[in-house]
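Protein: GntR family transcriptional regulator
Species: Kaistia nematophila
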Amino acid sequence: MSWNATRLSEDGAPKWFQIANILRQSIVEGEFQAGDVMPTEAHLNEVFDVSRTTARSALNKLVQEGLITRRSGVGSIVLGGRVDQPVNQIRGFTEDMLLRGLKPSFAVLSAGWEQASGEVAHALGLASSDKPFRSDRLLRANDRLMGYSVSWIRPDLFGSVAPPTEAQLADGSLYAWLREKLDVEISGGVEFIEANLASDEIAQLLDVEPGSAVLVVTRIAKAAGGMPVEFAVVTYRADRYRFRVEL
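Structure follows.
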């Protein structure tokens, strides 16, 4: 049954809650798909004979659940499902997406040797004069923009091996490159996960409104002997990515 053919119960749950359930079901069943524009508040008012406040509350419920996003001048846009990442495992983005049956892809914004900042030098155990290899990439899953990654790799790992090219970084996993070219295996590390609001720069990169919720992951990835290999800061769209804790 189409969403607008469903009638509200006069004796059931609050009308805004019923409308949210109807719209949620229409998304689950594919009547509305990722990228589609949901009915406007005015349209909901007309179909269900409710007030504007009731219609707005129903849509806000779906925003809270991460099913839609409200964009000024556009309306309510259906989002795809969020990707879950277990917090007790450190995996590269490529490995993580492939395990979920999703196709990872990357857009390389920059790559090259760069002077270590104090934070990077401390995380990797480097001298302040050292220049780790830095890469900036946009992360996508099934062509949906998921996040923005900035990664620094300690320079003494490379020896005579040239760092990955932009084409190689765009084509696949950085961790796989480290394993295949440098015989370095990421086996553990530390991650800090924080909620934040998107700055103007991050909002432009992630195609969200400034001030939108984002998840920021600061990671120190280590080799088997405990040597820090990578320091990374990854900013994820909170409407498309979340972390899962298994207890």
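Remarks: Residues 3-78 form a domain with the Arc Repressor Mutant, subunit A fold (CATH 1.10.10.10).
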